[in-house]
Each structure stands twice: as structure tokens, then as C-alpha cells.
Amino acid sequence: MALVTASTTPTKPRANNSAGASDGPAASSVASTIDAAGGGEEGVTQPPQTDLANTDPAHTGSLARRMMMIAAGWIFALLLIGGLALDRALTGLVTNQFDEQLELSLMAMVSSAELDPFGEVFFNRPLGDQRFLEPGSGFYWQISAPEMDAFASRSLWDERLEIDYNRDAVKPAFYYSNQFADERLRVVQRSINLPGSETQWQFVVAASLADLDNELADIRAILIWSFVLLGLGLLLMAAVQTWYGLGPLRRVRRAIARIRGAGTNRVTDPLPLEVQPMVQELNALLEHSEKQAEEARTHAGNLAHALKTPLTVVTNAASLSDPELNRIVMREVALMRRQVDHHLARARAVGRRGIGLSRANVMESARGVERAVSRLYPEVRFDIAGKGDADVAVERQDLDEMLGNAIENAAKYGGGSVFVTLDADPVSEHCVIWVEDDGPGIPEEERTAIFARGARLDTEKPGTGLGLAILRDVAEIYGGWVALSESEDLGGLLAELHLPRA
User: Fold this and answer.
1) This model's pTM is above 0.70
2) Which of 9, 88, 365, 493 is the most exposed place for a label (fewest CB within 10 A)?
3) How far apart are CA 44 and CA 386, in angstroms?
4) How does DSSP assign 286-336, residue by residue?
5) Is the pLDDT of residue 56 over 90?
């Protein structure tokens, strides 16, 4: 029964002065055992393939239309608010000027008014505005007192203004009057005690609002047309700004079309700073795709070259009717299987690697591998210690394969004890995983050669000689590496796996 512990990271320093590896098993056997033990990933059914060339990606609408709608909304709202505020201000200004004219006429009346010997009011000089003399001109004045005949302007003719004698008019009081059905009036009233009289006279000046309304209508028409033209100009400016601002995106589209049609492999057009990060990511994606394609071609070439020689040997032996044909076929088939396993492991890792980093928990993967390997080697004692929350930027299946190769190699060639330390150096940029055993270890001069495909120091035990080669290759695909040294605690081999943190 394997023993799994969760302790703190050991603080004893380890030597790291070599770059080699010991032998390990084929990845397929460990992966299948991990799945049987419940520590690996569940099988995933591949989705049906679709023709991406004939599938348009989903979109959220036009970016230009969105920008124009935002601009139009803001322009409409600001012009509406500004127009209403300006209309209110101009209306108040024109109305105040209208009231000032009424008040000036009122003051002229007060300054010109006197009492005759009979107690009647008269003007010692005529008022300057000739409209007071024209009947129905819309400008009227009137001087009234209770139980007294009203003294009114000729413009009123036989009409008289209705006066509210109870109104507080010590100071000029302005109000509206609907006395005349066809003419709305603006009225200013003031109470005056003339010298030599105890009567409180009501001095009133009234003017038709038709002129004020016409003036306000003219001002509003000017405002409306001005704001309409301003709005159209702003919308045109927003359209030009949108077209010009989205120009770099059109240039990027043309550059991508050149990549597909003319065979160029990068977007090199000078672009604004805001678009440059997207272009850099696009160039990085193109570089990544080229790298993957080149790696695929290299793997295919290497595999073809590796299979060519065994197939030639088998063909020659069969054509010569060699009596050792069975042995030769079995030997060469084993060699071809090792080559196929190695290249398939690399191809899987390269295919799963993406631009965005993956994430896998080291403790979960190590426990799954430990359960699987303990079934293959029930006599071996396993110990796992370290941080349980350490994550690496590696696909879970590839992490299982790397840990499976390292741990099974330690179980196979060790003396019965395997110690695994997770995140042995928490301050390091990479997550460091130690796999130690108590076996004879590997001499320092052979630690580099052991990483060669098919290299084995102990040929008496079964194996393909590809475990550590696969471990190294998959780690390098993800930007990590593997180093070998001597275990200070157990005395055997110490395999250090460095993987990028998630």
C-alpha cells in the first residue's frame, strides 16, 4: 500500500549540475494504468468535424454602426439639453427686456403725472411712445383709483383695463392678463400717492404679448435651424472620425488577405499604438502556427527516417528467406514501436499546446500517477510531499505522462522507495518537482547520454528506453527542462522537472 503524505517543502539544497535522464517505460502503459486507477482524465469523445471554411463566425454587429449610434445619441442628448437651456435663457432675457420697457413707460407716467384743481390726474408732458396714441396698437396705459374715473390712453379707445386694487404694488408688479379675448397682455402695476392727494392711484402699463411671442418664435427658429445644422455637422464629423479611426483595422484585414493570397507570413504595416498589440498577437499566432507546422514536418520526416531502416532490414530478410526471419521481424518491430511511441508522445504534446497557457494541478496529477504506478509495483513505497495548490501551465494529460515516466522509472530501477517533492523551490519562476529513489543511480558521465532515444543502462529489465527521452521532449515543448543529480536523502537518482507556473 503506497504511503502519500502532505508535508512542507524540504529546505535541504540539492545539487543540479547535470542535464541527463535515466530510462523509463513507454508512455502508453503508464497512461492506461492511470486511467484504470482513476487518476487520469476521463475519455473525451471527439466532436464532429465541421467545415470551418464555410462557417461564418458569429458577430455582434458593425463596430462603425455602434460608434455612430453612440455618437448620435450623445450629440442628440447634448444638443437637446443645450438647446433647452439656451431657449430658457434667451426667453428669460427677452422677457426681462420687455418688462424693462414696460417699467420705463410706467416711470415716465409717474414722473409726468400731476393733479389739476379738480383733483383729476393729467400729464404735464406727453409720453414719448406714439403707440399709446393709436387705437388698438397693443400698448396701453391707465391711471385708476377707487370711485374715480379712469384716466386711460387713447389706444384703449372705449375699453378700460381691469385693475386689482388689492394687489400689493408698492413696487412694480408684473402679471399676465386675459381680459381681451383676442389679445393676451403683459401688465405692470404700481401704487402711487401723488403730492397734494390722499388717494392711492394705480398706475398701469399693459402691452400685447404678440410682439414678444413673435420675437421668441424668431429666436426659437434660429435656434432650431442652428442646432440642426450643428447636429448634422457633428454627425458628419463623427462619421469621418469613425471611418478614419477604423482605417487601421481595414489595413489589418488587407494585410491578412495578403498573408492568405500572396504568401506573406507577417503583418508589417505601420499601425497606431492602439492596434499594435493586436497585430503583435496576430504575428505571434502566425509564428506559433508556423512553428507547429514545422514541428509536424520534422516529426513526420524523423519518423519516416526512423522506420525506413527497420523496414529495409525486414524486407531484405524476407526476400533472402533468412532462417532468422522471425527473430529479425520481432526485433525490428520492437524498434519501430519505440520510434512510433516516441513521436506520438511529442505529437500529442505539440498538438495540445496552445497560445494560451493550460493549467494543471501538480498534486492531483502526482496522486493519480502514484495510484497507477503502485499497482504496477506494489512492493515499492511511495511518499509525496509539497504544496497542494501548485499549478503548472501544462495540459493534465501531458503532466500525467511526464510524472508517470519519472515516477515509474524511479520505481523500476530504485531500491524500493520513491520520494516525490512538489514545488521544491517556491520562489523559483518555474515549478520544480523532485523525484528521488534509493537505487544505484546513474554515473555523472552517463547522465547526458541516457536521454538518447532507446538508451538503457539496465537491459535486464523490460522497457523501451524512451521514458526519459519523452519526459525531456514534452517538458521542452512547454518551456521546461529536466536535470539529473544524486539524491542526498535516499542516495539514488534525483530527477528534477522544471515546468512553467500557471
Assistant:
1) no
2) 88
3) 30
4) HHHHHHHHHHHHHHHHHHHHHHHHHHHHHHHHHHTT-TTHHHHHHHHHHHH
5) no
